[in-house]
Amino acid sequence: MSSTNTPKTHFLVYAPDYTDADAGSRRQSDGATHVAHMVNMKESGILVDMGIMVTPKSLGKGAKTVGMYLVIEASTLEEAKEIVQKDPFWDANVVSAAALVRVAEFC
C-alpha cells in the first residue's frame, strides 16, 4: 500500500455481480461478512460511499441486485484495485473479477 504522505484521490468502482445461477445465493451467504468489511472500511475513512445496483425492472419490493458501486479513497489506481480485492465478495466470487476494470479517478 501507499505512504501516508501520498495525496489521496476518490475512485469510483463499478463492481457487477457474476450472472450465473448461483450468484445470488453466494451474495446472500457472504452478505454479513461483506457488510462487516464495509463498516470497517467506512470507519477507517477508506470507504466514502457505496450502494447496490438493481435491475430497472425490479425496483421496489424484491429488487434484484446486479452489483454495487463504491467510492473509495486511495493514493493510486493500483491501491484502489487492491482495496476492492480485499472485499469478501471478491473471494466468494460474487463480484465479477473479469468485469472489474471500471475503476476511475474522479474529483
From TrEMBL:
It comes from the Eukaryota. Pfam families: YCII. SUPFAM superfamilies: Dimeric alpha+beta barrel (SSF54909). It comes from Hericium alpestre. This is YCII-related domain-containing protein. Gene3D superfamilies: Dimeric alpha+beta barrel. InterPro entries: Dimeric_a/b-barrel, Sec-metab_biosynth-assoc, YCII. Residues 18-100 form the YCII-related domain.
